[in-house]
Amino acid sequence: MEDDENDTLAFERWEAYVIEHYPNPERTGCPSRETLKRFVDSPAQVGLEDLNDTHITRCRECVMDLRELRRLRDTSTPNVITEP
Ligand SMILES: [Zn+2]
Prior knowledge:
binds zinc ion, mainly alpha, globular
């Protein structure tokens, strides 16, 4: 699926951008780790209000948490995509 690949690329660019531009060491306004985990596992069950609206698009700490949570999730599935 070509679209899928493009989405992944765009997503990675977005992550890199947020990590560079939006540090949030005090974790001001961050949703709970539990909420982030739920967002990774079943995004449809998590509303924008749970995520503090668009907070994660402007928070390096949350992006890094989400990345870690996704990796943890991905390593437990049989079809792991190996990245360089
Ligand atoms: Zn945050």
